[in-house]
Amino acid sequence: MSFCSFFGGEVFQNHFDPGVYVCAKCGYELFSSRSKYAHSSPWPAFTETIHADSVAKHPEHNRPEALKVSCGKCGNGLGHEFLNDGPKKGQSRF
């Protein structure tokens, strides 16, 4: 499964089949379907990455509650990590 198809709506928002979400640009493993959960945003939501280096995180200018997230291998932009916005207290949402 390729992650982040921003054109015309996200096709994986309500997709819960077992599998691995990979970078659309280089194919690097990003998220497992086991860490995916239903969320009100129009994008798929995950609580954790597959590998410690699956994503790179950078502070978002003027948004202390969010980090800019990109593929840890090729740098492809993936969106944000929203701090303390996961399904459980203290968890983040990718």
UniProtKB/TrEMBL annotation:
Domain of life: Eukaryota
UniProt keyword annotation of Metal-binding present: yes
Catalytic activity: [thioredoxin]-disulfide + L-methionine + H2O = L-methionine (R)-S-oxide + [thioredoxin]-dithiol; L-methionyl-[protein] + [thioredoxin]-disulfide + H2O = L-methionyl-(R)-S-oxide-[protein] + [thioredoxin]-dithiol
Compartment(s) of residence: Cytoplasm, Cytoskeleton; Nucleus
Keywords assigned: Cytoplasm, Cytoskeleton, Immunity, Innate immunity, Metal-binding, Nucleus, Oxidoreductase, Selenocysteine, Zinc
Ranges that cross the membrane: none
Range of residues in the leader sequence: none
Cofactor(s) demanded: Zn(2+)
EC number: 1.8.4.12, 1.8.4.14
Family to which this protein belongs: Belongs to the MsrB Met sulfoxide reductase family.
Function: Methionine-sulfoxide reductase that specifically reduces methionine (R)-sulfoxide back to methionine. While in many cases, methionine oxidation is the result of random oxidation following oxidative stress, methionine oxidation is also a post-translational modification that takes place on specific residue. Acts as a regulator of actin assembly by reducing methionine (R)-sulfoxide mediated by MICALs (MICAL1, MICAL2 or MICAL3) on actin, thereby promoting filament repolymerization. Plays a role in innate immunity by reducing oxidized actin, leading to actin repolymerization in macrophages.
UniProt-recorded name of the protein: Methionine-R-sulfoxide reductase B1
Organism: Pipistrellus nathusii
